[in-house]
Structures are given as C-alpha cells and as structure tokens.
Amino acid sequence: MMGMRGGAQNIGAHHTQKKIDTKAVVKKMARRFAPDKKRLLLAVSFGIASTIFAAVAPKLLGDAINVIFDGVVGSKMHNLVAACHGSKVCVEAVLKKSGNAQIASIVSAFPSIPKGIDFTNLYRLLTLTIGLYVANSFLSLGQSYVMAGVAQRATALLRRDVEEKLGRLPLSYFDSKSHGDTMSRVANDIDNISTVVQQGLSQLLTSILGIVVFLIVMIIISPFLALVAVITVPLALLSAKRIAKSSQGLFVSQWKHTGQINGHIEESYSGHQLIRAFGATERSKETFDQYNERLYQASYKAQFLSGIVQPMMQFFSNLNFVLIAVVGGYRAAQGAIAFGTVVAFTQYARQFTMPMTQIASQINLLQSGIASADRVFELLEAGEETPIPTSGALNKSLKGRIELRGVSFSYNKETPLIEDLNVVVEAGEQLAIVGPTGAGKTTLVNLLMRFYEIDSGEILIDGVPYSELGRDEVRTAYAMVLQDSWLFDGTIRENIAYGTDDKSSDIVEAAKSARADAFVRTLSHGYETAVTEMGTSLSAGQRQLLTIARAIVANPPILILDEATSNVDSRTEMLLQEAMATIRNGRTSFIIAHRLSTIRSANHIIVMREGRIVEYGNHESLLAANGYYKELYESQYA
Amino acid sequence: MLGSLLLRFARPYRKLIITVLLVVTIQTVGNLYLPNLNAELINNGIVSGKLSKIISIGIEMLALTVGIGAIAATGVLYASKASMGIGKDLRAAIFEKVSAFSEDDIAEFSTAALITMNTNDVSQIQLFAQVALTMMIMAPIMAVGGVIMAMRENAKLSLVIAVVVPIMAAIVITMVRLAVPGFNQIQRKIDKLNLILREQITGVRVVRAFRKVPFEESRFNDANQSLAKTALYVNRIFAFSMPSLMLVLNGSTIAVVYFGSHLISSGSMPVGNLVAFITYITQIFFSVMMSVFVIVMMPRAISCADRISKVLAREAHVRNADTTLPLPLRANIALEGISFGYEGSEEPVINDLTLAIPFGKTTAVIGGTGSGKSTLVKLLVRSYDPTSGSISFSGQDIRDVELDELWSRIALTPQTSYLFKGSLRYNLTIGRVDATDEEIFNALEIAQAMSFVEGLEGGLDYQVDQGGTNFSGGQRQRLAIARALVSDREILIFDDCFSALDATTDRKLRSALRERVANKTVVLISQRISTIRDAHQIVVLEDGRLVGVGVHDDLVQSCEPYREIVASQESTEATL
Fold first, then answer.
1. Which of residues 504-563 of A touch B (CB under 8 A)?
2. pTM for the structure as a whole
3. ipTM, 2 decimals?
4. Among B89, B127, B91, CA closest to A260
C-alpha cells in the first residue's frame, strides 16, 4: 500500500540476547501500582496481621500439647505425689534418686504438679487457637481478595495503555513490525504479567512478612543463635540471585520467541490460502519448526532453572539447621544456653527458611514477568507521533482547497522521493495521480492524510497550514477508499456507519449510491449480517462496494480514491463512476487510477515515476508536452 | 479432554516421564526420611549434649540433602524437557492441522482464536504439565504416606482424617466447578481482544482516516473490561479456596488435639503418639497445599485443552480421500454440473455450471461482481468442494486425488497479493525451492517487475515486510505473478491479478507471458475486456450461471451480457 522504501529495516531477525535493566523495569512496574496504593496497603495490613496470627497459633497449640503432656506426667506420678503429700521438692528428689533426672527437670518446671490433664486450660487454649486460625483465614482471604482486584486492575490498565499507545504510534511502526509479535505482547506477555502479579506479589508479601516475624522471634529467643541462623542467608541469596540472573536471560528469549512464533503463525494463517495453493505448507512448517525449537530450548531451560531453586534452598535450610544444631549444641554442652532453647530455635529456624525458599522461587518467577514487562514497556515507549493539539483553526464549513507548497518527503534520507512539490487544488477540483505501477502514488496519500509527516514545506487546507492543525482535524476533511478493503468484526450496517459519527445518517441511502444495496438485500440478515459470519463469502468486489458506501456516508469535503475500483467489474464500475461523479460534485477529490480514461477530465494530473513526480499539468497540457504522460496514454489506447 | 490430550502428547516423552516419576518418588521418600534424622539429631545430639553425634548426624543430613537436591534437579530437568516438549508438539500439531484446514474451517474458528490457541492456550497447558509432573506425584505419596503413618499411630484418631478429606474434596470440587466456566470465558475473551487488536493493526490506515481511534479504543476497552471482570471473578474464587482449606486443616489439628487429649486421658493412647500424629497431619496438610497449587492451574488448562482438542479433532472440510488416485498429466479439465453455495447464504454462488478447460489453452472468465468468478477458482484449487457436480482432470475426479498432488500442478495468483515477511527470494521461490536466480530473474522480467527489483538494495535478498507493505499494490501483484511463474506449474490461475496494473504494464506483461505459457493451461479471471480478448476461450458468468462461452468475436455476436460488458468498457474509452 505504501510506496517503496529503499533499504527498509529488517526487524525481529536479530538474535543477540538483549540485556534488561531489571531495576528500571521493576520501578516502572511499581509505579503502575501507585494508584492502587490504598488497596495495596490494605492487603499488606491483612497480610501482616494474618502472618502474625499464623506465627502465634503454633505457639498456643504447643502450649496445649504441653498441658496434655504435663497432665500425663502428673497422672503417672500419682502415687509418688500422694506419697510426698503433694510436695514438689520431695517428688523431684525421689525422681533424681531413682535415676529419672530428666523427668525431675520437667517436674521442676511445673508451678505445681497436675493431677491429670487440665481440661479447662486445654479447652481455653484450643478455643484461643481456633480463634486465631479463623482470624488468620479471614485475613488471608481478605488479602487475596484485595490483591486479586489490584492485579486485575493493573493488568486491565496495562492493556488499556497499550491500546491507547497503538493509537499514537506512527504508521511506520505498523508498516515495519510483525503484527503477530505486537499481538503477542498484548495477549501473551500481559497475560504472563497478570499471572506473576497475581501469584507472585501476594506470596512475596507474605513471605517477606514471615521472614521479618520469625527473625524477630529468633532474636528474642537468642540473639546469638539468631546470628548463626542468618549466616547462610547471604549465601542463599547469592545463589538465588545467580540463578535469577541466568533465568532472566532465558525468559527474555522465551518471550521473544513466543512473539516471533506468534508472528509467523499470524502471517501463515493470514496467507493460508496462498501457502496451501503453492504447496508451501512444508516450507512454512519448516520455518515454524525452527522458531518452535528455539522457543522450546529457551522455555525448558528457563523452567529447569526455576525448578532447581527449591531443592537448592532446601539445602541451605538444612545447612542452617545443622549449623544451629552444632553451634547451639556446643554452647548447650558448655552450659551457656538451655538445650530446650536450642530445640525450640531449630523449629523456628525451619519456619524462617520456608519463606526464604518461597521468596527465592518467587523472585525467579518474577524474572519471567520482568522479561514480559520489558517487552510491553518497549512497546509503550516506542517513539510516538508528536502530539498536535486540535487548534480549531479549521472552518466548520470546509471548502476543500488544498495547496502543497514546496513539499519534500522521503521515507529514508538516502532516497529522496518528493522534492519541492508545488500544487494548488481549488475546492471542488480533481487531482489525479497517475504513473506506472509502483511509482509511489500512494506516498502522496500518506502525506495528504498525514499518515507520514512531510520533511519540509507546507500543505495547506483552505489556507490553513497542516502544521497548525491536529491530525484528526486534517482527517475530518477527508474520506478515503483504499485498495485493501478493510472491514471490522461488526454488522454491514456498522461497517458502513464507520464513516461517520452522525447516528442519523442514512446507511441504506449510502449503500444504494455505492451500488451495494442490491447484494446486501440478498443476505440472510440484510444490513444486520455480521461481516465475519460471512467469512470468505463476501467477494473482494462486494467488500470494496461497502468501503465506498462507508466513504459516501462520511460526506467529507475531500475524497481520496486509491485504486478504489480495481476489484469491481466494469459494469459495476460504471455505476460506481456515476455515484462517484455525484458525490464528487462540489468536492475536492484525489484519484489514483490505472485507467487513464477515468481521470481524463481531472483538473490536475500528477505523473509519477519511480517514486518521483516527473510531470504535472492537465490532460491537454500533458499531451502537448509530449512527455511521459503521452507515452503512457498512447500505450494504453494504441 | 485435558487428560486425554496430555496422555496423547506425553507419549513421546514417556521415558522421561517415567524417570521423573521414579526420581520424584525417591526424592519424596528422602524428604520423608529427613525429619527422622532431624529428630535423631535433636534427641541423640542436642538433648544429650554429644557434639560428635551432632556433627556426624549433621553431615549425614547434609549429604542426604545434597543427594536429594541432585536427584530433584534431574527430576526438574526431565520434567521441564517433557512438559515443554509437550507444548512444542502441541504447537506443531495445531499449526499443522490449521495449515490443512479449508478456508471455511478457519473462518469458523476465526483466525484470531486460532492464533491465540497456538501460543497462549498451549502455554497454559505446558505450564500445567510442568507443575503436575513435579507435584502430582509428590503430593499423593506424601499424603498416602502421611495417612498410613497416622493410622499406625492411632486408628481411632485417623477418623478425623476420614472426616476432613471429604470436606476438602468438596471445597476443591466446588472451586473447580465454579472456575471452569470462568476460564472458558477467559480464553474466548482473549480471542475477542486479539481479534480487535488484529483488526486495528491491519486496518490502521482506515481507523485513522475515519478518526475512529476513540471508537476502536472503546471497542477494545469493552472487551478488556469484560476480560478483567471474568479474570477477577475466577481469581476471587481462588482467593476463597486457600484460606478455607487452611481453616479445615488447622481445625483438624485442633480436633486431633481435642480428641487425642481424651484418648490420652483414658489411657488408650500414649502422649508421644499425639505429637507424631500432628506431624503427619501437617505432612498431609503440606501435600494438600501442593495439590491445590496444581488444581488452581487445572481449570484454565482444561478449558484450553477443550479448545485445542476441538481444533485437532476437526476434519478439514476439504481433505484427502482414504485412497487416492494419481492425477493425470497434461489433463483437460472438465466441470460437470457444479453448484456451490457458501454456508449461511441462501443463494448458490455457482449454479449448475458445466465447462471444459482444455489443456495448453487460455481460458478467460469474465463476469460482474458476485458472478462467482473467484469462487470458481476456489473450487478449482479445492479450497472448497462443490455442493453438487464434479470437477475432473482427464476424467479423474479431483476429490480422489491427493491434495498436494493437485496443488503441485497449479500456480495460483490470488486477487489480493500477499507477500510474506522474509527475503524477496524466499517469497519468489515459495512454490519451487530449487529455482535458480536466473529462473527467478526470467520470471521477474516477464512479470514486468525487473525494473523495480533491480533498484532494490540487496536485490533478491531485499527484505519484504509482512503482507508486502513495503511494496505498492501493483508491485505486489507483479511479484505475485513472478512467484507463480517461478513455480513452473502446468496450470496457471490468475485471479483478477492484473487489476492494479496500469494498462501499459498489463499489455507488456501479457505479451511476455504469451510465449511462456505456450504449453500450459491458463485460467485468467478479469474484468477487463482488453486483458482477455485474445484468450482461446472466454467464459461469461452471470449470477453463478454460465451465459456464454466462445472467442471474443463470437461472443460479441451471440452473447448479450458480454456485449454489454464490451459496450460499457468501450463507452468509457470512447469518451476519451
């Protein structure tokens, strides 16, 4: 559709591993959560409370078990206690004498020797524990519930921002990038981010809280042993970091290749008929297999690295345990520490390393999210069209006079296309662009519609320079019919109505003018037939008639007809020419046609060749000039 | 569906998977043994203050963990290879299947949905396979081990487990039941989002020209909001699941202590058993947590598997017969009484058409928009099969011929010339990989494309953008024609592909083409009399019916619709 672009850039073929600025990506991601600060804070508070409850509950349960244990010990010594008349000192002494030093030490801890299990106290403790568990469950429910909202809102916002971004990207972005890859960024990468945020953020939060809570508990119990317990932390962190670093590269490659394969799939399904008809299925499959293999290599390695985090962290957890046991045992043997403390400490150390393992796993999962986020941010940060505010400088009742004043343009600097072009098209006049195939005729359309900005010079509409107008302001003046008849997933009525914002406009009337009404009426649901329902049954010519109706309904002062009638048979074309003549009446029009017959009466004719304008005039003056136009003309009607 | 799909695609990896299962079993048993060492270290080491014992058991523990770690790493490696391999094969299977689809099959599923399935849905399944492989074996072993050990400690107390397990199962089943429809919707909504996105990208010029960016944004946002709503619903269901399961499990621990205390008090259970029992309950608890992790991923994987299974199970409308016969060379093509109507439209597009297309001659087809010209081409290349009647090559019905063989005889240049991302050479040799540069240049020469190809940086290595957007419509058409010529097939079909060419190029091209196609069957669809006037045979179609066959001069005499077309085109030329 666009004119040639010499040496167009080839995107997506580079295989060099991109390095991600993790900090920047995380920061950008964090900034996206800022609007939900309050909810996030709420979730954190829920998380803190539930973690504290979760830490206290086992302690109470332990107390309850101690009550049972004590009761059992007490009841076993029933006779002994009776013999000692309830004296604790007496019982201890008897026990020590009989060689039960261990039991004696237990007894010494009793305030008084229980007769059996103290059920009142036990029920009290159990009720308290169950209360804590209920509270814990509700709090963690609250946390997940709120986090689900935060995660989904963030994801929806991200998708919305990407969508809005697509509206601001210059046309050159879409012309040069693989469509499937752009789609993959929205469908696959944002989906991945959503999963990571949903699962990861919540768990990461609880895990960090868990670490803090248990660290505090450990410090309270024994600052010395707490110091021993954290010795392995840097080691564990270092290893986790190393793994995360390598896995990030693999995740980057995984999502990059997902985009690539999506690109290939999108393209292959778009050109499906052709691939089949040329028997190129095998070849397309070969390319697919290459991408697929690369994706497989990256994903299984990434999965492997993520998977070994847990066993690795388990090793550190055990190392930690043994260290505490050795150092604590040594100190206990010296009498510097009660061995009960060491035993309790080992249990807390276990609970301390569990969230560590989770964090390490989550950090690794985050790498996948970061790789995806980077791809999404890359799209969000792609160079935009410079925003031009709507100025209101354009008169509401536009006449449609167009002037090109010293316009120069090229797609890239090395091959200048249009240089110092001066054309004036008065309101209601016709300008035709002719030239052999591929002469760059659509380039002019790109400039008039402001799909691309000119390098120098000025285009004026009703005397107002483009540079003083917003892009949409310029476009209100135009309706165009393009060679590729694009319709969207909606009914025929909606597709024709696409041309206007005016709800009252007569769709059927426009369809009649475009000669589309007759075939639309034969469809089972008439104007309410969905375009996709018909799939392939809408012929190219019929599609084009609909796009013409769409332009008619837009009712603009200026028309652009880009090879518009190439798919319509000559009889239909004649009818269309009539319709066009009617709507062209009083409108400025730019026509790109291959049949010189259709533009013979145009006020202005621009003759293009190899991307450049070679002649300019009207039919008579150009024939008289005896130049390229004449050559074209004669070849056509000779 | 998920189960059968996974079983089918897991087959090539069964050795890996069996190894994973073995390795994970060893790992789990090792993990179950660790607490024993742990207890021993406390009891025989710390409590009795024997430093040497602490160190020796400590070393034993570390050695065991290193061993378990190494085994676990092997398990993870194989599990990753197997699950990602399943994903790879699934992607390839879908791609292959869709490649064999007819156009109406694709339209039925929608291109956007097929793209989503091929990447997004497959990732859900491979991720599920990965998690399931490592956890699904570990969790039951731990749970069963836990239950057995718990029962050995005290059978009566194990009744608690008998009560708790059905409650947990009920919670999990309810959760999955509620979530599956949600996930079905999620995948469909992702399709919708993809569809809109794809339309916006391919139609970016129209969208901008009609200043419909805000309209498109609102269309996208509706789909986006709707997706977010469903995703939120599903995630909130899961938000309920974990806390409620935790509550049940914690509650069961308390129940164990409560009932245990009475059992102990009555002397029917030693106190040590209670502590052990709690350890095992915790272990069962841990395994349930792991299975929940798998179960959380299951509903989405199930819905993805259903969609994929539907695609894989779909027999393409047009497909090879069970036994295929050879296609005769240099065949005369005969269409006998063929009719065809697209699904959903009442009127047939082709109506009882009988036509002979002789070998080595040029047959031109002309007719109004919607007269069935392009449909005729689609029937010839078997994009569709006629609803009634038959198409045969020298008497051989093409439905009994291998599709690839049919296609290997035909070079099609479709109405809309699509070029692929890749080098120009790649695009031109798509029908015949071994074409030499000389042959390619020769084809370009005939297609009148040499002039602009010469000027391209890198010549045949010049990179084509997707869809060929870095070429103009006319350039694309000429490249498409060159592509057909390079493929050197005995039947050439040009489906209205000269339309974007200016008259000069059109004329030059046709005269250059004439020699090249001397011994080939050419089917030329066009709307321009000038393009077809020299054809050996001109077929005039009107509303899917044959209204005239013959050479130009005869038709002008005998065929009224043809005369009208000629008149309409002459009139535009006459006004010159």
1. 519, 522-524, 532-537, 539-542, 545, 547, 550, 554, 563
2. 0.78
3. 0.81
4. B91
